[in-house]
Amino acid sequence: MTEEPSKLPRLTLARQIRDSLVGRIVSGQVRPGERLVETRLAATYGTSQAPVREALRELEAMRLVETQPRRGTFVRPFIQETLRESYVVRAALEESATRLALLAGTVPVEAMRAEVEAMRAAAQAGDSEASARASVSFHRHIVEAAHNELLKLTWEGLQIEARTSVTMVATEVDLHDIVRDHAELLAAIEGGDLETACRQARDHQWHYADLPHDAHGRMRDSATG
Amino acid sequence: MTEEPSKLPRLTLARQIRDSLVGRIVSGQVRPGERLVETRLAATYGTSQAPVREALRELEAMRLVETQPRRGTFVRPFIQETLRESYVVRAALEESATRLALLAGTVPVEAMRAEVEAMRAAAQAGDSEASARASVSFHRHIVEAAHNELLKLTWEGLQIEARTSVTMVATEVDLHDIVRDHAELLAAIEGGDLETACRQARDHQWHYADLPHDAHGRMRDSATG
DNA sequence: CGATAATCAATTATCGATAATCAGTGAGGA
DNA sequence: TCCTCACTGATTATCGATAATTGATTATCG
Protein backbone atom coordinates (compact mmCIF):
# COMPACT_ATOMS: atom_id res chain seq x y z
CA MET A 1 0.00 0.00 0.00
CA THR A 2 1.30 3.38 -0.91
CA GLU A 3 0.73 6.33 1.32
CA GLU A 4 -2.08 8.68 0.52
CA PRO A 5 -0.79 12.18 0.02
CA SER A 6 -4.21 13.57 0.82
CA LYS A 7 -4.96 13.18 4.49
CA LEU A 8 -1.41 12.71 5.55
CA PRO A 9 -1.77 12.26 9.28
CA ARG A 10 1.27 14.41 9.36
CA LEU A 11 3.83 11.92 10.41
CA THR A 12 5.71 12.40 13.54
CA LEU A 13 8.62 14.78 13.37
CA ALA A 14 10.92 12.03 14.48
CA ARG A 15 9.77 9.94 11.55
CA GLN A 16 10.43 12.65 9.04
CA ILE A 17 13.86 13.26 10.42
CA ARG A 18 14.54 9.56 10.44
CA ASP A 19 13.62 9.17 6.80
CA SER A 20 15.68 12.14 5.86
CA LEU A 21 18.69 10.77 7.64
CA VAL A 22 18.25 7.34 6.14
CA GLY A 23 18.31 8.92 2.74
CA ARG A 24 21.38 10.93 3.50
CA ILE A 25 23.21 7.98 4.88
CA VAL A 26 22.49 5.40 2.26
CA SER A 27 23.11 7.91 -0.48
CA GLY A 28 26.47 8.67 1.01
CA GLN A 29 25.78 12.33 1.69
CA VAL A 30 26.99 11.69 5.17
CA ARG A 31 30.11 9.61 5.28
CA PRO A 32 30.65 6.38 7.14
CA GLY A 33 32.21 7.07 10.49
CA GLU A 34 30.88 10.58 10.51
CA ARG A 35 29.47 11.80 13.75
CA LEU A 36 25.86 12.85 13.99
CA VAL A 37 25.55 15.55 16.59
CA GLU A 38 22.09 15.81 18.02
CA THR A 39 22.13 19.51 18.68
CA ARG A 40 23.47 20.31 15.27
CA LEU A 41 20.88 18.14 13.55
CA ALA A 42 18.18 19.73 15.64
CA ALA A 43 19.31 23.10 14.44
CA THR A 44 19.43 21.89 10.87
CA TYR A 45 15.90 20.56 10.97
CA GLY A 46 14.64 23.42 13.03
CA THR A 47 13.39 21.18 15.80
CA SER A 48 14.40 20.43 19.32
CA GLN A 49 16.73 17.68 20.34
CA ALA A 50 14.02 15.19 21.25
CA PRO A 51 12.78 14.10 17.85
CA VAL A 52 16.32 13.98 16.54
CA ARG A 53 17.31 11.71 19.36
CA GLU A 54 14.40 9.49 18.68
CA ALA A 55 15.24 9.32 15.01
CA LEU A 56 18.78 8.33 15.86
CA ARG A 57 17.49 5.54 18.06
CA GLU A 58 15.55 4.18 15.16
CA LEU A 59 18.52 4.45 12.87
CA GLU A 60 20.39 2.43 15.38
CA ALA A 61 17.72 -0.24 15.26
CA MET A 62 18.16 -0.22 11.50
CA ARG A 63 21.87 -0.62 12.05
CA LEU A 64 22.69 2.45 10.04
CA VAL A 65 24.39 4.14 12.95
CA GLU A 66 25.83 3.06 16.23
CA THR A 67 25.59 4.90 19.49
CA GLN A 68 28.08 4.89 22.27
CA PRO A 69 26.35 6.05 25.42
CA ARG A 70 27.35 9.56 26.35
CA ARG A 71 29.76 9.74 23.47
CA GLY A 72 27.61 10.20 20.47
CA THR A 73 26.32 8.37 17.46
CA PHE A 74 28.27 7.66 14.33
CA VAL A 75 27.38 6.47 10.90
CA ARG A 76 28.37 2.88 10.64
CA PRO A 77 31.17 2.02 8.34
CA PHE A 78 30.48 -0.59 5.71
CA ILE A 79 26.93 0.48 5.06
CA GLN A 80 27.34 -0.63 1.50
CA GLU A 81 28.60 -4.01 2.61
CA THR A 82 25.64 -4.36 4.92
CA LEU A 83 23.32 -3.48 2.11
CA ARG A 84 24.87 -6.22 0.09
CA GLU A 85 24.68 -8.63 2.97
CA SER A 86 21.04 -7.84 3.35
CA TYR A 87 20.32 -9.41 0.01
CA VAL A 88 21.65 -12.71 1.24
CA VAL A 89 19.57 -12.54 4.36
CA ARG A 90 16.53 -11.57 2.39
CA ALA A 91 17.23 -14.45 0.07
CA ALA A 92 17.20 -16.80 3.03
CA LEU A 93 13.92 -15.44 4.31
CA GLU A 94 12.21 -15.33 0.96
CA GLU A 95 13.27 -18.80 0.03
CA SER A 96 11.67 -20.01 3.20
CA ALA A 97 8.65 -17.85 2.64
CA THR A 98 8.26 -19.33 -0.78
CA ARG A 99 8.44 -22.80 0.63
CA LEU A 100 5.86 -22.05 3.29
CA ALA A 101 3.53 -20.27 0.94
CA LEU A 102 3.67 -23.04 -1.62
CA LEU A 103 3.14 -25.72 0.97
CA ALA A 104 0.18 -23.83 2.33
CA GLY A 105 -1.09 -22.97 -1.12
CA THR A 106 -1.48 -19.34 -0.21
CA VAL A 107 0.51 -17.67 -2.96
CA PRO A 108 -1.40 -14.63 -4.20
CA VAL A 109 -0.63 -15.25 -7.83
CA GLU A 110 -2.95 -12.62 -9.21
CA ALA A 111 -1.57 -9.85 -7.06
CA MET A 112 1.95 -10.79 -7.93
CA ARG A 113 1.15 -10.84 -11.60
CA ALA A 114 -0.21 -7.36 -11.20
CA GLU A 115 3.05 -6.23 -9.68
CA VAL A 116 4.95 -7.69 -12.60
CA GLU A 117 2.72 -5.71 -14.89
CA ALA A 118 3.40 -2.63 -12.83
CA MET A 119 7.08 -3.27 -13.30
CA ARG A 120 6.58 -3.63 -16.99
CA ALA A 121 4.78 -0.33 -17.15
CA ALA A 122 7.48 1.28 -15.08
CA ALA A 123 10.09 -0.15 -17.37
CA GLN A 124 8.43 1.32 -20.40
CA ALA A 125 8.10 4.64 -18.66
CA GLY A 126 11.68 4.46 -17.50
CA ASP A 127 10.53 5.00 -13.95
CA SER A 128 13.04 3.14 -11.82
CA GLU A 129 11.48 4.18 -8.54
CA ALA A 130 8.12 2.82 -9.53
CA SER A 131 9.83 -0.35 -10.60
CA ALA A 132 11.52 -0.64 -7.24
CA ARG A 133 8.26 -0.08 -5.42
CA ALA A 134 6.52 -2.76 -7.41
CA SER A 135 9.36 -5.10 -6.72
CA VAL A 136 9.09 -4.56 -3.01
CA SER A 137 5.37 -5.22 -3.18
CA PHE A 138 5.97 -8.34 -5.21
CA HIS A 139 8.30 -9.76 -2.64
CA ARG A 140 6.17 -8.66 0.24
CA HIS A 141 3.32 -10.71 -1.17
CA ILE A 142 5.40 -13.82 -0.87
CA VAL A 143 6.58 -13.01 2.59
CA GLU A 144 3.07 -12.33 3.77
CA ALA A 145 1.75 -15.46 2.14
CA ALA A 146 3.99 -17.48 4.41
CA HIS A 147 1.77 -16.47 7.31
CA ASN A 148 4.62 -16.25 9.68
CA GLU A 149 4.53 -13.00 11.57
CA LEU A 150 8.07 -13.21 12.83
CA LEU A 151 9.38 -13.98 9.39
CA LYS A 152 7.62 -10.94 8.07
CA LEU A 153 8.86 -8.73 10.89
CA THR A 154 12.39 -9.86 10.30
CA TRP A 155 12.07 -9.27 6.60
CA GLU A 156 10.63 -5.81 7.09
CA GLY A 157 13.48 -5.04 9.41
CA LEU A 158 15.90 -5.61 6.60
CA GLN A 159 13.95 -3.66 4.10
CA ILE A 160 14.82 -0.03 4.29
CA GLU A 161 12.20 0.65 1.71
CA ALA A 162 9.61 -1.04 3.86
CA ARG A 163 10.28 1.19 6.79
CA THR A 164 11.01 4.53 5.24
CA SER A 165 10.17 6.57 2.23
CA VAL A 166 13.58 5.95 0.81
CA THR A 167 13.94 3.72 -2.17
CA MET A 168 17.05 1.85 -3.12
CA VAL A 169 17.46 1.46 -6.80
CA ALA A 170 19.98 -0.73 -8.49
CA THR A 171 21.85 1.36 -10.97
CA GLU A 172 23.01 0.15 -14.30
CA VAL A 173 20.23 -2.35 -14.54
CA ASP A 174 17.88 -2.50 -17.43
CA LEU A 175 14.39 -2.19 -16.05
CA HIS A 176 13.23 -4.73 -18.57
CA ASP A 177 15.61 -7.24 -17.09
CA ILE A 178 13.94 -6.69 -13.76
CA VAL A 179 10.59 -7.42 -15.28
CA ARG A 180 11.93 -10.58 -16.82
CA ASP A 181 13.54 -11.75 -13.60
CA HIS A 182 10.37 -11.35 -11.65
CA ALA A 183 8.26 -12.90 -14.35
CA GLU A 184 10.54 -15.92 -14.33
CA LEU A 185 10.41 -16.17 -10.59
CA LEU A 186 6.66 -16.00 -10.64
CA ALA A 187 6.55 -18.63 -13.34
CA ALA A 188 8.68 -20.91 -11.24
CA ILE A 189 6.36 -20.40 -8.32
CA GLU A 190 3.35 -21.12 -10.41
CA GLY A 191 5.11 -24.05 -11.98
CA GLY A 192 4.55 -26.00 -8.86
CA ASP A 193 7.92 -27.57 -8.27
CA LEU A 194 8.80 -26.66 -4.75
CA GLU A 195 12.55 -26.91 -4.87
CA THR A 196 12.85 -25.16 -8.18
CA ALA A 197 10.76 -22.27 -6.96
CA CYS A 198 12.71 -21.99 -3.74
CA ARG A 199 16.03 -22.03 -5.50
CA GLN A 200 14.82 -19.43 -7.90
CA ALA A 201 13.63 -17.24 -5.05
CA ARG A 202 17.04 -17.46 -3.51
CA ASP A 203 19.03 -16.90 -6.66
CA HIS A 204 16.84 -13.99 -7.53
CA GLN A 205 18.09 -12.11 -4.50
CA TRP A 206 21.64 -13.27 -4.68
CA HIS A 207 21.80 -11.96 -8.17
CA TYR A 208 21.25 -8.41 -7.04
CA ALA A 209 23.71 -8.51 -4.21
CA ASP A 210 26.64 -7.37 -6.25
CA LEU A 211 25.01 -4.55 -8.13
CA PRO A 212 25.67 -0.94 -7.15
CA HIS A 213 22.77 0.94 -5.68
CA ASP A 214 21.50 4.45 -5.35
CA ALA A 215 19.10 6.01 -2.92
CA HIS A 216 16.04 7.91 -3.99
CA GLY A 217 12.98 9.35 -2.39
CA ARG A 218 11.67 12.52 -0.99
CA MET A 219 13.19 13.69 2.17
CA ARG A 220 11.77 16.92 3.31
CA ASP A 221 14.11 19.44 4.75
CA SER A 222 13.28 21.49 7.77
CA ALA A 223 9.84 21.23 9.26
CA THR A 224 7.07 23.60 8.38
CA GLY A 225 6.85 25.02 11.84
CA MET B 1 13.57 2.58 40.86
CA THR B 2 15.72 2.07 43.89
CA GLU B 3 18.70 4.33 44.19
CA GLU B 4 21.82 2.29 44.14
CA PRO B 5 24.22 3.47 46.81
CA SER B 6 27.05 3.38 44.30
CA LYS B 7 27.25 6.91 43.03
CA LEU B 8 28.23 5.71 39.61
CA PRO B 9 25.37 5.98 37.15
CA ARG B 10 27.11 3.12 35.48
CA LEU B 11 24.49 3.05 32.83
CA THR B 12 22.20 5.52 31.32
CA LEU B 13 18.83 5.86 32.96
CA ALA B 14 17.18 4.79 29.77
CA ARG B 15 19.26 1.62 29.82
CA GLN B 16 18.33 0.79 33.35
CA ILE B 17 14.68 1.32 32.62
CA ARG B 18 14.95 -0.73 29.48
CA ASP B 19 16.53 -3.62 31.29
CA SER B 20 13.99 -3.43 34.02
CA LEU B 21 11.17 -3.51 31.53
CA VAL B 22 12.70 -6.40 29.65
CA GLY B 23 12.77 -8.30 32.88
CA ARG B 24 9.21 -7.48 33.69
CA ILE B 25 7.99 -8.42 30.27
CA VAL B 26 9.77 -11.71 29.86
CA SER B 27 8.91 -12.72 33.39
CA GLY B 28 5.29 -12.04 32.69
CA GLN B 29 4.90 -9.37 35.33
CA VAL B 30 3.37 -7.23 32.66
CA ARG B 31 0.90 -9.05 30.51
CA PRO B 32 0.93 -9.36 26.76
CA GLY B 33 -1.26 -6.73 25.22
CA GLU B 34 -0.90 -4.50 28.24
CA ARG B 35 -0.35 -0.86 27.58
CA LEU B 36 2.78 0.84 28.77
CA VAL B 37 2.02 4.43 29.58
CA GLU B 38 5.05 6.65 29.43
CA THR B 39 3.98 9.04 32.12
CA ARG B 40 2.99 6.32 34.49
CA LEU B 41 6.27 4.49 33.99
CA ALA B 42 8.14 7.71 34.50
CA ALA B 43 6.37 8.16 37.80
CA THR B 44 7.11 4.58 38.76
CA TYR B 45 10.78 4.92 38.07
CA GLY B 46 10.95 8.42 39.46
CA THR B 47 12.31 9.86 36.25
CA SER B 48 11.01 12.08 33.54
CA GLN B 49 9.34 10.91 30.40
CA ALA B 50 12.42 11.10 28.21
CA PRO B 51 14.38 8.08 29.35
CA VAL B 52 11.23 6.00 29.51
CA ARG B 53 10.42 6.90 25.96
CA GLU B 54 13.86 5.98 24.89
CA ALA B 55 13.65 2.66 26.66
CA LEU B 56 10.38 1.91 24.94
CA ARG B 57 11.97 2.60 21.58
CA GLU B 58 14.60 0.05 22.31
CA LEU B 59 12.04 -2.47 23.42
CA GLU B 60 10.36 -1.96 20.12
CA ALA B 61 13.56 -2.77 18.33
CA MET B 62 13.69 -5.94 20.37
CA ARG B 63 10.16 -6.74 19.26
CA LEU B 64 9.01 -6.93 22.83
CA VAL B 65 6.51 -4.14 22.37
CA GLU B 66 4.88 -2.41 19.49
CA THR B 67 4.21 1.26 19.22
CA GLN B 68 1.43 2.94 17.33
CA PRO B 69 2.37 6.55 16.75
CA ARG B 70 0.41 8.86 18.98
CA ARG B 71 -1.54 5.99 20.44
CA GLY B 72 0.83 4.30 22.76
CA THR B 73 2.94 1.22 23.09
CA PHE B 74 1.73 -2.21 24.03
CA VAL B 75 3.42 -5.37 25.08
CA ARG B 76 3.50 -7.59 22.08
CA PRO B 77 1.30 -10.56 22.56
CA PHE B 78 3.78 -13.22 21.77
CA ILE B 79 1.93 -16.31 22.13
CA GLN B 80 3.48 -19.65 21.68
CA GLU B 81 3.09 -18.98 18.02
CA THR B 82 6.09 -16.72 18.06
CA LEU B 83 8.34 -19.38 19.43
CA ARG B 84 7.24 -21.82 16.80
CA GLU B 85 7.65 -19.19 14.15
CA SER B 86 11.13 -18.48 15.31
CA TYR B 87 12.25 -21.96 14.46
CA VAL B 88 11.27 -21.43 10.88
CA VAL B 89 13.10 -18.17 10.64
CA ARG B 90 16.10 -19.70 12.29
CA ALA B 91 15.94 -22.51 9.80
CA ALA B 92 16.00 -20.04 6.96
CA LEU B 93 19.00 -18.23 8.32
CA GLU B 94 20.96 -21.29 9.24
CA GLU B 95 20.35 -22.98 5.96
CA SER B 96 21.82 -19.97 4.26
CA ALA B 97 24.63 -19.79 6.73
CA THR B 98 25.44 -23.38 6.03
CA ARG B 99 25.51 -22.72 2.35
CA LEU B 100 27.76 -19.71 2.72
CA ALA B 101 30.09 -21.41 5.15
CA LEU B 102 30.45 -24.48 3.00
CA LEU B 103 31.05 -22.45 -0.12
CA ALA B 104 33.68 -20.46 1.69
CA GLY B 105 35.10 -23.53 3.36
CA THR B 106 35.04 -21.87 6.74
CA VAL B 107 33.12 -24.40 8.79
CA PRO B 108 34.79 -24.79 12.18
CA VAL B 109 34.38 -28.51 12.31
CA GLU B 110 36.48 -29.07 15.38
CA ALA B 111 34.66 -26.54 17.50
CA MET B 112 31.33 -27.94 16.44
CA ARG B 113 32.42 -31.43 17.27
CA ALA B 114 33.34 -30.18 20.70
CA GLU B 115 29.87 -28.79 21.18
CA VAL B 116 28.36 -32.10 20.24
CA GLU B 117 30.51 -33.71 22.87
CA ALA B 118 29.36 -31.14 25.36
CA MET B 119 25.80 -32.07 24.50
CA ARG B 120 26.60 -35.70 25.00
CA ALA B 121 28.03 -35.00 28.41
CA ALA B 122 25.02 -32.89 29.27
CA ALA B 123 22.73 -35.64 28.16
CA GLN B 124 24.43 -38.15 30.38
CA ALA B 125 24.27 -35.71 33.27
CA GLY B 126 20.66 -34.95 32.52
CA ASP B 127 21.53 -31.27 32.39
CA SER B 128 19.15 -29.74 29.91
CA GLU B 129 20.46 -26.23 30.49
CA ALA B 130 23.94 -27.26 29.50
CA SER B 131 22.58 -29.10 26.52
CA ALA B 132 20.74 -26.01 25.39
CA ARG B 133 23.80 -23.86 25.78
CA ALA B 134 25.92 -26.23 23.75
CA SER B 135 23.26 -26.33 21.09
CA VAL B 136 23.18 -22.58 20.80
CA SER B 137 26.95 -22.51 20.53
CA PHE B 138 26.88 -25.20 17.91
CA HIS B 139 24.52 -23.23 15.75
CA ARG B 140 26.30 -20.00 16.38
CA HIS B 141 29.45 -21.51 14.96
CA ILE B 142 27.72 -22.07 11.67
CA VAL B 143 26.18 -18.66 11.60
CA GLU B 144 29.49 -17.02 12.31
CA ALA B 145 31.26 -19.11 9.72
CA ALA B 146 29.07 -17.56 7.08
CA HIS B 147 30.95 -14.30 7.59
CA ASN B 148 27.89 -12.25 7.05
CA GLU B 149 27.57 -9.76 9.85
CA LEU B 150 23.97 -8.92 9.13
CA LEU B 151 23.00 -12.54 9.02
CA LYS B 152 24.56 -13.04 12.40
CA LEU B 153 22.90 -9.98 13.87
CA THR B 154 19.55 -11.10 12.58
CA TRP B 155 20.08 -14.56 13.96
CA GLU B 156 21.11 -13.25 17.35
CA GLY B 157 18.04 -11.11 17.35
CA LEU B 158 15.99 -14.27 17.31
CA GLN B 159 17.41 -15.54 20.53
CA ILE B 160 15.14 -13.30 22.47
CA GLU B 161 12.11 -15.13 21.20
CA ALA B 162 13.52 -18.34 22.45
CA ARG B 163 14.36 -16.90 25.81
CA THR B 164 11.13 -15.15 26.41
CA SER B 165 8.06 -17.08 25.64
CA VAL B 166 9.07 -20.48 26.77
CA THR B 167 11.74 -22.12 28.79
CA MET B 168 13.15 -23.04 25.47
CA VAL B 169 13.48 -26.71 26.03
CA ALA B 170 10.73 -28.63 24.42
CA THR B 171 9.08 -31.01 26.74
CA GLU B 172 9.40 -34.67 26.13
CA VAL B 173 12.63 -34.39 24.26
CA ASP B 174 15.28 -36.87 25.10
CA LEU B 175 18.60 -35.13 25.47
CA HIS B 176 20.22 -38.04 23.71
CA ASP B 177 18.05 -37.37 20.68
CA ILE B 178 19.41 -33.86 20.64
CA VAL B 179 22.94 -35.20 20.58
CA ARG B 180 22.08 -37.49 17.72
CA ASP B 181 20.37 -34.76 15.73
CA HIS B 182 23.33 -32.47 15.97
CA ALA B 183 25.78 -35.22 15.24
CA GLU B 184 23.86 -36.07 12.09
CA LEU B 185 23.75 -32.46 11.04
CA LEU B 186 27.44 -32.10 11.55
CA ALA B 187 28.06 -35.28 9.59
CA ALA B 188 26.04 -33.93 6.70
CA ILE B 189 28.04 -30.73 6.78
CA GLU B 190 31.29 -32.62 6.80
CA GLY B 191 29.95 -34.91 4.13
CA GLY B 192 30.51 -32.21 1.63
CA ASP B 193 27.32 -32.28 -0.38
CA LEU B 194 26.05 -28.74 -0.32
CA GLU B 195 22.37 -29.30 -0.87
CA THR B 196 22.17 -32.21 1.49
CA ALA B 197 23.81 -30.23 4.24
CA CYS B 198 21.58 -27.24 3.66
CA ARG B 199 18.45 -29.30 3.69
CA GLN B 200 19.55 -31.00 6.85
CA ALA B 201 20.25 -27.65 8.49
CA ARG B 202 16.77 -26.54 7.62
CA ASP B 203 15.01 -29.71 8.65
CA HIS B 204 16.92 -29.72 11.87
CA GLN B 205 15.15 -26.54 12.90
CA TRP B 206 11.81 -27.30 11.37
CA HIS B 207 11.78 -30.47 13.34
CA TYR B 208 11.63 -28.57 16.59
CA ALA B 209 8.84 -26.37 15.42
CA ASP B 210 6.56 -29.37 15.36
CA LEU B 211 7.33 -30.51 18.84
CA PRO B 212 5.02 -29.64 21.68
CA HIS B 213 6.44 -27.03 23.93
CA ASP B 214 6.00 -26.27 27.52
CA ALA B 215 3.86 -23.21 27.35
CA HIS B 216 3.90 -21.83 30.81
CA GLY B 217 5.77 -18.95 29.29
CA ARG B 218 7.72 -17.98 32.31
CA MET B 219 11.35 -18.06 33.12
CA ARG B 220 12.28 -19.17 36.56
CA ASP B 221 13.97 -15.95 37.47
CA SER B 222 14.60 -13.16 35.07
CA ALA B 223 17.49 -11.82 37.07
CA THR B 224 21.11 -12.24 36.07
CA GLY B 225 20.32 -11.16 32.56
C1' DC C 1 60.86 17.45 29.74
C1' DG C 2 57.08 14.28 30.97
C1' DA C 3 53.25 13.07 33.72
C1' DT C 4 49.23 14.56 36.27
C1' DA C 5 45.71 17.68 37.78
C1' DA C 6 42.72 21.54 36.85
C1' DT C 7 39.98 23.83 33.49
C1' DC C 8 37.15 24.50 29.38
C1' DA C 9 34.13 23.84 25.50
C1' DA C 10 31.12 20.69 23.29
C1' DT C 11 27.67 17.44 23.57
C1' DT C 12 24.66 14.01 25.58
C1' DA C 13 21.20 12.76 29.10
C1' DT C 14 17.56 14.31 31.67
C1' DC C 15 14.14 17.36 33.33
C1' DG C 16 9.70 19.90 33.74
C1' DA C 17 6.33 22.22 31.01
C1' DT C 18 3.39 22.71 26.95
C1' DA C 19 1.17 21.68 22.49
C1' DA C 20 -1.11 18.27 19.83
C1' DT C 21 -3.81 14.35 19.45
C1' DC C 22 -6.69 10.49 20.78
C1' DA C 23 -10.68 7.96 23.02
C1' DG C 24 -14.83 8.47 25.31
C1' DT C 25 -19.21 11.02 26.36
C1' DG C 26 -23.25 13.42 26.03
C1' DA C 27 -26.09 17.30 23.62
C1' DG C 28 -28.51 18.56 19.58
C1' DG C 29 -30.71 17.57 15.06
C1' DA C 30 -32.65 14.68 11.11
C1' DT D 1 -33.41 6.13 17.49
C1' DC D 2 -29.25 7.06 15.30
C1' DC D 3 -25.69 10.05 13.88
C1' DT D 4 -22.71 14.09 14.11
C1' DC D 5 -19.98 17.02 16.65
C1' DA D 6 -18.14 19.82 20.27
C1' DC D 7 -16.16 18.96 24.87
C1' DT D 8 -13.18 16.57 28.25
C1' DG D 9 -9.59 13.82 30.39
C1' DA D 10 -5.67 11.15 29.34
C1' DT D 11 -1.50 10.52 26.94
C1' DT D 12 1.95 11.21 23.42
C1' DA D 13 5.07 14.39 20.90
C1' DT D 14 7.78 18.26 21.26
C1' DC D 15 9.99 22.06 23.34
C1' DG D 16 13.53 24.89 25.80
C1' DA D 17 16.54 24.69 29.68
C1' DT D 18 19.77 22.41 32.78
C1' DA D 19 22.78 18.80 34.74
C1' DA D 20 26.36 15.64 33.85
C1' DT D 21 29.90 13.68 31.16
C1' DT D 22 33.43 13.55 27.74
C1' DG D 23 37.77 14.83 25.34
C1' DA D 24 40.85 18.21 24.74
C1' DT D 25 43.77 21.86 26.51
C1' DT D 26 46.40 24.08 29.61
C1' DA D 27 48.65 24.74 33.84
C1' DT D 28 51.40 22.58 37.61
C1' DC D 29 54.86 20.05 39.60
C1' DG D 30 58.52 16.62 40.14
In words, what does this structure look like?
2 copies of one chain form a homodimer. With about 220 residues, the first copy, chain A, is mainly alpha-helical. Chain A has 2 domains: about 15-75, Winged helix-like DNA-binding domain superfamily/Winged helix DNA-binding domain (Arc Repressor Mutant, subunit A, Orthogonal Bundle), CATH 1.10.10; about 80-215, GntR ligand-binding domain-like (Four Helix Bundle (Hemerythrin (Met), subunit A)), CATH 1.20.120.530. Chain A is about 65% helix and about 10% strand. Chain A contains 10 helices and 5 strands. Chain A has helices at about 15-25, 40-45, 50-60, 80-105, 110-125, 130-145, 150-160, 160-165, 175-190, 195-210; strands spanning about 35, 65-70, 70-75, 165-170, 215. Chain A has a 3-stranded antiparallel β-sheet with strand order 1-3-2. A two-stranded antiparallel sheet of chain A has the order 4-5. In chain A, helix 4 packs antiparallel against helix 7 (about 150-160). Residues about 1-10 and about 220-225 of chain A have low confidence and may be disordered. The interface of A and B includes residues 96 and 158 of A. The structure holds a DNA duplex (30 and 30 nucleotides).
Task: Lay out the secondary structure.
Two copies of one chain form a homodimer.
Chain A: H1 13-26, E1 35-36, H2 38-45, H3 49-61, E2 65-68, E3 72-75, H4 79-104, H5 109-125, H6 128-145, H7 149-158, H8 160-163, E4 167-170, H9 175-191, H10 194-208, E5 213-216
Antiparallel strand pairs in A: 1-3, 2-3, 4-5
Chain B binds a DNA duplex (30 and 30 nucleotides) through residues 9, 12-14, 37-40, 47-51, 53-54, 69-72.
GO molecular function, one term (chains A, B): DNA binding
Keywords (chains A, B): DNA-binding, Transcription, Transcription regulation
Protein name (chains A, B): GntR family transcriptional regulator
